[in-house]
Prior knowledge:
The protein is an alpha+beta fold. The protein has a single domain, classed as Trna Endonuclease, Chain: A, domain 1. Helices cover about 25% and strands about 35% of the residues.
Amino acid sequence: MVQDPRTEQLGSWIVVLSNDAIGRAGEYQAASIFELHGITTTHVDVKAVDLWVETPSGRRVTVQVKSSLGPRPLESGRKNPRYKFHLHKQTACAMADVFCFVALDLGYIRLCSSAELSRGDQMFHARDMNEQAMLEDIKRYLY
Length: 143
């Protein structure tokens, strides 16, 4: 039997994660990664913005975080699993400067500017969620 990735067995307890809990975990994961790379973060509760960051050069950037517990199951005809991140219409209108996509199962992030986003869902192949791509994105968008 395949277990729903939103549930976890902890002893005799079963924990069901809400979308809010998954999102919050992604925000803290992203903030942790940023801080470890010398980028100061402040967690905020502002419409379509989750983090305010200050880059090592002193630039201030707003960040919207989207989180995923893991890649979607393979669909027929697909060879590589993909991470899918849902962008609401108002989110896709880009109130944040940078969007951060978090793969919670791997501990990696990917970044893109709001200008690069297309409306609708954002997808990343699982093979593109890796440390090298993450570091290149951080350098490109936050330095």
